[in-house]
Q: What sequence folds into this?
């Protein structure tokens, strides 16, 4: 056991040569464009069926909007995509290869932004960021971190400890994390919470650049983010409750969801 | 490997900047041992007789005290989720964090132990073995403790639960740790005890990160 995980930890997927605005296509072979897809996904949280029979497909350069009311399973789906949560049925595939065959490789090609910003109060912004950049496999973590902060419009917070940052600054720091190291697929759960208009506009540009370079994005949000040509996935279409299986159970579940 | 070392480096930096966490364990250790002469009376022979056991029990409790926080902060601020999504295997994450924890809490205990042994009138012949047993034993405590810390993550009153889970598992370490010192003080060789401690360490080193990683994966779901 000990030997095997050391062996894995030495290997890392293609992140060594990276300049912050030109991600990823050399990671994958140029002929076959990778497609991230899920088929017949069913997700169970506790004893509640969140969604069932869900299919999606994201090709390079594409973006997917996850829409639906609170509790319809947007976050759950993103966690399933990230591999944090196992679907009880259905399969994720990358380029027609099941993700479950090689979860390590999958973790190497995603960036996940959840509800929590993972900012350490005693570390400065650039220390926080360069740590994540190192883990993401960036060759020059500190340089990438500074460039990413600059790109998010907050170069002045570089040396400010995490505990003095505002909610919006922490969120920008968290978003800077995804451009400080390369990854093909961005999974963003309500990324614009606490951001001001200017930051949202910046972020839209960043997503557009990522997609132009062949990246993929899946976003759940209640705020309008401009992503031209993005596909919509309405999660309430897959919620078993709204199909009216059992009215009483349905009511109760909606209370939980709210 | 770079990433493994960076994680250790980050945890050390966090511990040193927060300060209190690191020093609390060793302060607790010292106070705990110092209480015994007040309880059992200042009779030098009695103190010398119980010194090895007292120091070891205090070391167990001190290591337990800081273990609760091993994954707690990372869990609460979302870092654990991101660590589990990094290409660094979860087992390596556990090992790095445990190692950093031991460097911050275990090493100061070892440094303070001879002083406390002197205070309890332990025979100077036992000092070397005392330090040696702690050097082999405290990493086992951190490793076994990491399983408990991972299992109780997110539980209310996790600290109490952690003690109940982990203290029984500490018993073999205590027996061989204190046994080695007693053997040395009585003119016997401490070798068998030390070898058994070494065996425990060799077993815990791969198994504990593996078990903790499984528990952590469950916790971040």
A:
């Amino acid at each position: 056991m000990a030997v095997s995980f050391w062996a894995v930890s030495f290997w890392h997927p293609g992140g060594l040569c990276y300049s912050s605005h030109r991600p990823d296509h050399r990671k994958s072979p140029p002929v076959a464009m990778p497609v991230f897809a899920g088929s017949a996904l069913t997700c169970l949280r506790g004893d509640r069926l969140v969604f069932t029979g869900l299919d999606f497909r994201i090709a390079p350069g594409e973006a997917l909007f996850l829409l639906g009311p609170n509790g319809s399973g947007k976050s759950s789906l993103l966690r399933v995509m990230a591999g944090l949560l196992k679907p009880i049925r259905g399969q994720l595939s990358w380029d027609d290869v099941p993700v479950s065959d090689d979860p390590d490789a999958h973790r190497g090609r995603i960036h996940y932004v959840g509800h929590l910003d993972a900012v350490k109060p005693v570390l400065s912004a650039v220390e926080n960021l360069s740590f994540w950049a190192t883990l993401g496999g960036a060759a020059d973590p500190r340089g990438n971190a500074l460039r990413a902060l600059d790109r998010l419009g907050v170069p002045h917070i570089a040396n400010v400890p995490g505990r003095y940052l505002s909610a919006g600054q922490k969120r920008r720091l968290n978003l800077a994390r995804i451009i400080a190291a390369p990854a093909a697929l961005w999974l963003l759960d309500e990324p614009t919470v606490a951001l001001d208009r200017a930051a949202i506009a910046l972020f839209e540009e960043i997503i557009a650049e990522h997609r132009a370079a062949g990246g993929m994005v899946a976003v759940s949000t209640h705020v309008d983010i401009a992503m031209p040509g993005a596909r919509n996935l309405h999660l309430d279409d897959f919620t078993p409750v709204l199909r009216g299986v059992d009215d009483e159970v349905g009511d109760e579940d909606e209370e939980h969801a709210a | 490997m770079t990433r493994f070392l960076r994680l250790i480096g980050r945890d050390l930096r966090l511990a040193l900047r927060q300060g209190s966490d690191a020093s609390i364990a060793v302060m607790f250790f010292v106070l705990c041992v110092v209480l015994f002469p007040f309880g059992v009376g200042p009779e030098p022979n009695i103190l010398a007789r119980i010194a090895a056991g007292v120091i070891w029990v205090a070391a167990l409790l001190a290591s337990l005290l800081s273990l609760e926080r091993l994954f707690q902060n990372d869990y609460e601020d979302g870092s654990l989720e991101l660590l589990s999504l990094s290409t660094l295997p979860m087992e390596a994450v556990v090992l790095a964090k445990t190692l950093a924890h031991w460097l911050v809490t275990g090493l100061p205990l070892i440094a303070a132990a001879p002083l406390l042994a002197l205070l309890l009138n332990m025979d100077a012949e036992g000092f070397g073995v005392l330090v040696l047993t702690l050097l082999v034993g405290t990493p086992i405590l951190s490793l076994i403790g990491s399983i408990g810390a991972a299992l109780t993550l997110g539980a209310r009153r996790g600290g109490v639960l952690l003690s109940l889970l982990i203290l029984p598992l500490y018993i073999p370490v205590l027996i061989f740790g204190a046994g080695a010192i007693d053997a040395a003080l009585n003119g016997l060789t401490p070798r068998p005890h030390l070898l058994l401690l070494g065996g425990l360490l060799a077993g815990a080193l791969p198994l504990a990160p593996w078990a903790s990683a499984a528990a952590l994966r469950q916790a971040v779901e």
Notes: Chain B touches chain A at residues 1-4, 6-7, 10, 13-14, 17-18, 76-79, 81-89, 91-92, 205-207, 209-210, 220-221 (CB under 8 Å). Chain B has nine helices and no strands.
